[in-house]
Design goal:
Chain lengths: 112, 149
């Protein structure tokens, strides 16, 4: 999985490409998010437009870091999850925990 | 629950099943993707609809992940077996087997319960049951058979 991180208006925008599943993909995202939190970056946007699949380990990671950021007054927001990612999130009952946007700009602006 | 419970019973039998795949992989998370992708490609060649392909692929991902982590303790010296079979009527069965001690599927916590919604693990079996039409655990839980109609 490719992970690209950039900062916009005090928001970490994380662009992901590939299947987000157990193994190096989830480990890489975990490391990215741990580093961000360690740096005090509690506002994150995950762009999932090019993520073909998310599995339960990825969902566990997202839910855990969502709780961590919210506890510190931040949030993790999702951009363009595909229909299968949405289905997966809905099936395990966590879709409504996340705010979802059509593009990075809208997600970043929502933190204002 | 005893081993004779419905959870451990065999699923529907079909003498006309054709074998599509029979593969063993090391119990390594990095080995799962190749098997899932191969199954997805096979189903594409069989003109299985996209939605059905996605649901099978994700269920296989979850079953293999459980086998690697819980069945084999992430020990790459151990092997996980994955078989895919199809019936003339289009039904597909996936069989994942690991050498572990098995488990009690009835003792898996419900991830939809309020206290578990924010948990960072424990959704794999539940997700498999949502995605596939029939799920049966055999051999004390170290073999899962998943049917997609």
């Amino acid at each position: 999985m490719d992970i690209n991180v950039r900062k916009r208006s005090e928001v970490q925008v994380v662009q992901l490409r590939g299947p987000l599943r157990m193994g190096s993909a989830v480990d890489g995202l975990r490391q990215t998010m741990e580093e961000a939190l360690g740096n005090g970056d509690i506002r994150m946007v995950l762009n999932l437009a090019e993520v073909s699949m998310i599995d339960s380990s990825a969902i566990g990671l997202l839910v855990r870091f969502l709780a961590s950021t919210k506890q510190r007054g931040g949030n993790i927001k999702l951009v363009q999850p595909n229909k299968f990612a949405v289905q997966t999130l809905r099936l395990v009952g966590v879709l409504n925990l996340f705010e979802i946007f059509d593009n990075d700009d809208a997600a970043v602006e929502s933190f204002a | 629950m005893s081993p004779m419970s419905p959870e451990f019973s065999s699923g529907p039998e079909d003498a006309t099943l054709s074998e599509l795949l029979d593969r063993s992989m090391p119990a390594d998370a990095e080995a799962i993707g190749a098997v899932v992708d191969t199954i997805s490609d096979t189903l594409t060649r069989l003109d299985v609809p996209e939605q059905k392909r996605f649901e099978v692929a994700l269920a296989v991902q979850e079953a293999l992940a459980n086998a690697v982590v819980h069945g084999c303790g992430n020990d790459p010296s151990k092997q996980v077996r994955c078989q895919v079979k199809s019936a003339p009527n289009g039904r597909i069965v996936i069989i994942v087997t690991d050498p572990g001690p098995g488990f009690r599927p009835d003792q898996v916590a419900d991830p939809m319960e309020r206290d578990n919604l924010n948990a960072d693990h424990g959704r794999g079996v539940f997700l498999i049951r949502q995605l596939m039409d029939e799920v049966h655990f055999e051999r004390s839980g170290n073999e899962i058979r998943m049917w997609k109609y």
